[in-house]
Amino acid sequence: MLAAALCGSALPLPALASGLIDNVNGVALDDTGKLVSFDALVIGDDGRIEKLLKGKDKRPERPTFKLDGKGRTLLPGMIDAHGHVMGLGFSLMTLDLSGTRSLVEAQAKITAYARENSGRKWIIGRGWNQELWGLGRFPTAADLDAAVADIPVWLERVDGHAGWANTAALRAAGISAATKAPPGGRIEMAGGKPAGVFIDAAQTLIARVVPPPAPKDRDLAFAKAQEKLLSYGVTGIADMGTSMDDWQTFRRSGDHGALRVRIMAYASGIENMIAIAGPEPTMWLYDDRLRLGGVKLYMDGALGSRGAWLKAAYSDAAGQRGLALIGSTQLRNQMSRAAMDNFQIAVHAIGDQANAEVLDAIEELSDTYKGDRRWRIEHAQIVDPVDLPRFAAHGTIASMQPVHEASDWRMATARLGEARLRGAYAWRTMLDNKVRLAFGSDVPVESANPFSAIAVAITREDAKGEPFGGWMPQQRIRIEEALAAFTQGAAYAGFAEKRFGTLAPGQQADFVLVDRDITLARPAEIRETQVLETWVGGKRVYVKGTSK
To answer: pTM score, two decimals?
Structure first.
């Protein structure tokens, strides 16, 4: 598997496309975001779009190859504006609790995994969500001991903003009643002792003693991540929080000709930014497949762990307003450090106070750092309505994940109450305010499937069709707007719109063939869209039913 991951064995059809994709139901977006149709696509020798053809338009006489699309729908390649590539890969190799619906079910799965993977020094995994379990509290080390007690276990919450340790892991990390949480973190306590869950920055207390994966494991995880993304029609992704180890993994793949998904990397903090790129953003590498152009910073935590920083206390936790993971001055200093060397800045902000703080910083720094900065706020989930118009003031991009709304609407209501959610997941308002919208998944927190997300964006309903008519339906957007946010908008958000993101002549030939026309399908049908083929740079890199 590792050899295949690095060598990138070819799929059927020409390795380098120079020809014609004909007889398709082509769907694209023009410069104004309107839907356009076409019947054929001509690809140059360089793997870029030459032209779109309609009806009786003359076809090339002697193409290097010709593919009969058999009337299938052809769409631009999807671009995920916010994901965690290596997190996705490792989630496919470690214990995954994301499908569990109760603590008992999770415990059974943990026990089974430990039994099937005997000999491991640690059990590592992710995906638990106490909200889905109906637990009414965080799980504890004792709960985890009931599943596995003899070796350390460390499990990240589904959002990555909390971790769950058993007693053996607490012992390995030297955690005791005297252990203090670092700034920006919280240790859940019970009876005066750490209970087993560590919030945000406190996770480092355990994570620092977890054995790191070997380079060969990283290479395999990355190969799995690419295959999963391509199977969903995702041809490009913004990797939010790239470490040096991640970057080296991407480079090894590129050096071996196995880098298939385009990666717009955002370094995990200033130190990684400098270590990876040095004095300025890197150039595009491997034919527009890899670039580090920005830095990812964190303002607050997440709603599920009550780490999102709010203007007022949580409705279901008196006295708690969440966590500011970085001070006001420190935030501005770090943003300035990146901006002075022309790195793009993306800041995680979920709570209304966090979003207001980042908008304040952008407003202040925009007087110093001029030009096309494309400031990004990642998530922008809970925003005070008075702050929504401020996104447009300095061209701030709202980098949002539609599926979060479908997953979170019940929890958000419990955490804040209806009255404080008028600016929550406000896609329609963002667009009406002329704010650039870029859609992503936050994979592996949510599925990387963009078609499920598009269905959410146009309905505000979850996979069960709830709530009927949509949650805060006034924030629904149109199908072409959702498609634009997953293509043009996501490319623009990564300074890549001149290279890929549309099917305009001169752009990279990144496209997918799917089994239905999503512009005509009902929302439930959009969710079920199957990707049949994925092409990147004029090369066919994924075929449904064929695994590399």
So the answer is: 0.91
